[in-house]
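Shipment paperwork, digital attachment
Item: protein structure file
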Amino acid sequence: MVRNQKVIYTAVPKGEPVPGETTKLVTDEIDLDNIPLNGGFLTKNLVVSIDPYQRAFFLWLMIAVSYRPGFVFGEPLDNYGVGEVLRSEHTDIKVGQKLYGFYRFEEYSVFPKESAGSFKILENAERLPWTTWVGAVGMPGKTAWMSLLEIGQPKKGESIFVSAASGAVGQLVCQHAKNLGLRVLASAGTDEKVKFVKNELQVDHAFNYKTSDTAEEIRKFGPVNIFFDNVGGPTLDAVLDGIEDHGRIICCGSISQYNATEKYGVKNTFQIVAKRLKVEGFIVSDLEPKWGEKFYAEVPKKLASGELKFKEDVTVGLENAERAFVGMLRGENFGKAVIKIADT
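Attachment content:
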């Protein structure tokens, strides 16, 4: 028998999640040699992603209206991850393979045979870190690349404003936009993050939204044609007022509102009509059938060569996952937030 730590969901948060109250670290045991697989497979879980969108699944009231079920009381949190196969009774899954897919926040998992098709076997010819497969080559990377092309429809010479520009998605949007010939305006929440976005990502202008006026920064930068929205709230309001006619707003996230007990009411919605704006939300899995093959053919190579940069904020150990999750929602992470559970 070996230890199997888990982070479970225990209570609906009132505002911000509270480690030890809304989630809890528990320790079980698992018999790796003898636990029944019933045609499925057993994994040692290496990394799991933590992302702002997970906050929605702490709210049981949202289960009926969300695009996936909420977390279940007494069960582990879950998200995209990478695991190594320890045992398998499935013909398509082999011992030693690394699998990308949806994992519970636990050290070891048994998956039913029906789930095999939902995993991607990682060859990793580029020899990227496993953390990167849940970041720049995982859901955030796909989100940045696919939505920019599909919804933003960027044209060389246009301008884009990217909020949360140092985050998992934003830092990639900035680079893709520059590579497509766009002028890039970016915002972040600390001076250190602004410096990274300016110097490392080479955007045209970046500012700290906590110490600068977003509407004024948009006005000074000049015409903005595309807004990649990771934050919602007052920033979205400022953009609606400042964006050009026929602008495109890519609604990716609203992290400014996830823990708010009183939601911000956007005021400038008539500008959508007056400026004939395209405002579109998306779920990245809806875009993958069209863009997935091209993404995997291009993006991992660019990361391996250094053409694309990607900053990660890695927390080691499930015992630190709760704190890291809350810190990510507060914006305390610098780069893509990842939990490293184990080495290979």
